[in-house]
Amino acid sequence: MNRLAVALALSIAFATTHAIAQDPAKTVTDELNPNFKPPVTAPAPDYDKRVVMIPMRDGVKLYTVIVVPKGAKNAPIVLTRTCYNAAARAERSDSPKMIEALPLSDEDFVKNGYIRVYQDVRGKYGSEGVYLMTPPPVGSGFNNSGADDTTDAYDTIDWLVKNVPESNGRVGMIGSSYEGFTVVMALLHPHPALKVAAPESPMVDGWMGDDWFHYGAFRQPNLDYFTGQTTKRGGGYHVSRGGRDEYSNFLRLGSAGDAARYMGEDQLPFWKILEAHPAYDAFWQAQALDHLLAAKGLTVPTLWEQGEWDQEDMWGAIHSYRAIEAVHKNDPLNHIVMGPWFHSQINRQGRGLGPFQWTTDTAEQWRRDYLVPFFNQYLKPGSPKFDLPKALIYNAGGETVGGAGSDHWETPKVWPTVCEKGCPETSKPLYLTANGVLSFTAPAADAPRSDEYVSDPANPVPFSPRPYDGGNWRTWLVTDQHFVDGRPDVLTYVSEPLKEPMKLAGEPVVHLWASTSGTDSDWVVKIIDVYPDTKPATGDIGGTFAGVLGAPYNMSAYELPIGIDIFRGRYRTSFEHPVALTPNEPAEFTFGLPMINRTIPAGHRLMVQVQSTLFPLYDRNPQTFVPNIFDAKPTDYVKATQKIWHEPGKASYISLPVAAQ
Length: 661
Prior knowledge:
It is built from 14 helices and 31 strands. The protein is an alpha+beta fold.
């Protein structure tokens, strides 16, 4: 009874208290205090951030963020012009420390006392004016706006050196991808105060091999880029295509043109322009910056940067470098670096890529030991002369199995070292012969004449394991190719295991003798480094292979792509004037693959895969010749029997850049 009495008393007390708390007659205090003032405890910033609207020659003003170290005097300026939001680009965090507030890639500039400037290109984010995406040069016949990224860079630099009192009047430019495009445009008519430049993975030729096309085949993920860039002044729209697997989504929608219309892109001026220019006509030729810059010649020391596994802009840097060297041999202003990076990884952590881990953070090493000293000697009077190599090329291969990796930087006097013509060494033909064999020996006259497969546009070869949702976009170029090896529409050719290491140092060129039962076709060629097929001991992850440190899983039999590209058959004789292919008539299709600098260890094999689709990265060729593939109808898509020839006189081969050792 005593326990019952105590419980009853507690219940009454709780009810009474609860009733008082809920009494509407009582005054309720608002727990939000809009007048709160945070205590001033944070240290004062060690930099001064200014936001200004810089006027251009036509009166348009461009949003510009200027970050100046406190107490700076006679400091150099590094400028980046961007379509990706200058305010956000200039603020990694709200730290009072400049080295933490700016992006990771700026840390070494901050350590060296630089003024850092980011600017929105005209028409984007905070900048005024009309936005034209990667606008052709004024005077090209395809830009009547009166302004481009050459004039805007000139006017911006002119304003900066006159209105930033802490500067020494010297400016460098740097930027990757689209930002790299703006650097290259500035080099066409540079302001006298522009003393040095570093275009990183720049967008240089959107048809030949940068963002939009590769040798005429359209890269479908760009449809997302178009809506992201050209539907709003700020960040644009994302339009869903349905389910998670983009392979299924694009296949269901039909042609790339059908997919674009489904996404509402027929409302976008840039898409309409691109759709109207599927071939390499005057529109594309007028903005091929590698050729334009080579014709003018460099007047500013320039360091081109290229990732060896760049999944977006594999063309621009190396072709600009080579175009300039072809006209101005051994130009002392012209330098190239190629590192083991995905697109724009140069501005991120560069310790590894996919399953691979390098001996050091290669991106930070390059920024600290090469980029900044190169900029210093031109932007900071009195700095030590820096002897930047003509070419700085990473070799991600090696001979080590277990222990420390042997991946390393190399400094060839001429790059590429090996090519078909005009290099210190000449490439060697690697033949695609009967029975799936790769050989440096030409095929015999009595060998089978060809191999064949059926290409079905309704069942295209995926470029990445499915379901594809974009999650491995940065690393698909190093994905193990077993996921397609063995498909009946993929021909595979393999060498014997190498008896000794093989050094590749230059440009592979495809010479594919092929025929199709259709009237058009795409040809995809991959060069692959096949790791030894070893059975790991119990609990082992397969050891350490070829410059790989502590790979997170078994690398046994790994099929590593070291060069992939696609060629649209209709452009075999002319990129500007496509023609139908003659059914079942062998013809030679010749095109370059990305540069390779790699030591392939003894015991590895070389592999070449040939196929006709790489989907949904590239739009499908209907395999029926139509005037514009963007407008192909469902009935135009037909199966085709593809033959790869290897008889004398029509022997398919890869011109492989094998270097002397």
